[in-house]
Amino acid sequence: MNIEWYVVLSSLLFAVGAMGILLRRSPIVILLCLELMLNAGNLALVAFSKMVGNQQGQVFAIVVMVVAACEVVVGLGLIVAIFRRKLPLDVDSLRELRG
Amino acid sequence: MSATSWAWLVLLFPLLGSVLIGLGFKVIPARAAGVLGTASIGLAFACGVAMLVNLLGQEPDARHHASSLWDYASVAGLDVKLGIYVDQLSTFMVLVVTGVSTLIHLYSFGYMRSDEGYHRFFSYLNFFVFSMLLLVLAGNFVLLIVGWAFVGFASYALISFWYRRETATKAGMKAFVINVVGDIGLVLATFLIFRELGTFDYGAVFARAPQVFSTNEWTITAICLLLLVGAFAKSAQLPLHTWLPDAMEGPTPVSSLIHAATMVTAGVYLIARTHVLFVLAPTAADIAAYVGLATLLVAGTIAIAQTDLKRAIAYSTMSQIGYMIMGVSIGAYAQGLFHLMTHAFFKALLFMAAGSIISAMANRQDVDRMSGFWRAMRFTSILFLIGSLALAAFPLTSGFFSKDSILAYAEARGGMYAWMAVGGYVGAFLTAIYTFRLVFRVLPGDPCPEAQHLIESGDLFHGPAINPATEEEEDADVGFPGAHHHIAEQSKPMAVAMAVLGFGALFAGLIQVPGVSDVLFKFLDPAFANSPLSEVHPSVGAEWRGLAIGGLISILGIATAYVLWVARPELPARFRERLRPVYLLCLNKWYFDEAIDFLVVRPALAIGRFANRVFERVVVDGLVIGTEDVVGGGGRLVRIVQSGFVRGYALLLLVGFAGLALYFLLSSS
């Protein structure tokens, strides 16, 4: 199969994820969208690795998965903490960092 | 032990006393502090005597030694040591300073007994003596500057001793500022000496100076003039004298210590010490002599019009220092130092007696209110009279021999110096008048209420505590003079100190009588042997002629004072009417304070205000505020982006990365 299909799919996935982050307000959905973006990247990595013919891209993809797992742990932990404090689960109302 | 070892001990004891009393004031009982302070100076005096004995055991020409404890800096071309120099001059100064200071400490032991700051007082006093000893024993110009500045600080601390009295703190500041002016002169002179001669060491400087400088070359003249600025500020010569009368705000023993034994004689010592340089710069020496002459005349006229007992004596000090400065500048080194010694005795005595009288007056110093103390306080009165006689150079007292030895030398040197001698005799006439004006107003007559109280009850008069300068009532708490006063009649230590000084004031002159005894000059002369001016010697006949004139003038002056203030007391008032401008000139101290205020203080303040208004407000503030505005404005701009919306940040991130990616894509193709 031609490499373009993979790249197009990966770009679409990335765009969907990015739009999700920008448009949705629930932290859980944002986290999901982040995963989507990361995996879009993974798909591109694996595809290019296959095209070039060595394993480096695949190794990279695994590293990205590890990072993604860590990030989910932290992200979900945050969400649980927010929920426990009975704060609204809405990223727009959590804006104490305003300068 | 060698002479220098004794000299180190001379320095050690006062320093130890000062530190011990200063740090241990909570542990040491008050009386013990006084004993400790007095004993430390007494020990220093004993070591000074040992130093003298040691020197006397050597050949007159070999009586100079240098010693150093360690090097401050020893690099190529620079060698600064913690070093002392012991010769006849420094030994003499050490003996005078420690000797008189011991007695003044003894006097303070009684006089300051009721003061809240007893420990502080003795700690300061010891430090003062230490500084002065450091000044006279220093072996190089650097250490001299250290001692010089220490003395300035110590005088500030002591003048402002009653620190809650505003007039006293102001007087302290004035003294300190004027002394710093002198310090600057001394430091600049030292700098020039080092630039020209490459050394700070006394021995090396005085050995090299005649080879490097030709007579009256501008550098050596500049050096000497700068040294004179230092000497004039310390020794209260015109026009840097205004701090001395104000320094009377300090406790009376301080006036006695500063104006008799130490501090004010530093300038005389400096000129005598650097006489090698002054011989090379006759112009500067002449200027010093003229300033000394002017000071002794001006101060004499001012003293006649003053009504504050201590201030009048302070002006007489200025006048007597004028004699000494004139003496050492024209080459009468040993004579000037002789007068320094006798003056130390009789002036310390006068101040002590004045302190006793002021105590009996419940701290009032106005001569107009005093009279009849001869009946109330016989002992004090007798010693006041002795001091006055010596100050007025009454025949056969100490001041008689010392003052006239300077004038005889001036006459023997001839030329314009002979005219200086004439000026000196005019000054002597003034001295006799103003001294006995005080005597005739304070001692005879009907007792004033305070004296009457003392006669009737045998107890001191206790008025409300007032500031003698402003007549304002004040506390008797810490930082003010204590509520209780002490007079010599009721305090043994004070009486002993005054009796010893009285003895000195009467008989100290006998060690140096022309044609009879020559103890002092024979001892001092080798130190000045390298000056061509020490070859000038008035003949014994000329000296006795001078003494006769001096004695006559003194008696004439005393008689004049008798006529003016006892026989025909209405005369002074008539003089005041007739010669109102002259009287006002003298009463207002020749307007020196006003002149300095107008010429120096106000321009300085104006410059300060100008700098504040223009430079600080516009330039400095402009820079500071401008910087603040730029940074603040930048912050405000950046803050707009910090909205707190996480999604907003994500958008920025995305757009930024997309932009970067686009840029690289476009630039790579």
Provide structural commentary.
- The complex is a heterodimer of chains A (99) and B (669).
- Helix content of chain A is 77%, strand content 0%.
- Chain A has 99 residues and is an all-alpha fold.
- Chain A has a domain of 63 residues.
- Chain A is elongated.
- The relative contact order of chain A is 0.13.
- The model of chain A has no long low-confidence stretch (mean pLDDT 90).
- Chain B is mainly α.
- In chain B, the strands form 2 sheets. Chain B has a two-stranded antiparallel ribbon.
- Chain B starts with a helix and ends with a helix.
- Chain B folds into 2 domains: 455 residues, no CATH class; 76 residues, no CATH class.
- In chain B, helix 3 runs antiparallel to helix 21, helix 6 packs antiparallel against helix 8 and helix 19 runs parallel beside helix 23.
- At the A-B interface, helix 1 of A face helix 26 and helix 27 of B.
What percentage of residues of chain A falls in helices of 4 or more residues? over 70%
> Strand order of the main beta sheet of chain B, please?
1-2
Q: State which percent range the strand residues of chain A make up.
A: under 5%
Structural class of chain A: mainly alpha
Q: What is the CA-CA span between the terminal residues of chain A?
A: 50 Å
How many beta-strand elements of chain A? 0
Backbone shape of chain A? elongated
> What helical percentage do the residues of chain B reach?
over 70%
Q: Outline of chain B, from the CA principal axes? A: globular
Largest sheet of chain A: none
Helix/strand order of chain A, N-terminal first: HHH
Give the structural class of chain B.
mainly alpha
Question: How many E-type strands of chain B?
Answer: 4
Average pLDDT rating of chain A: 90
Number of helices of chain A: 3
Chains forming the largest contact:
A-B, 13 and 13 residues
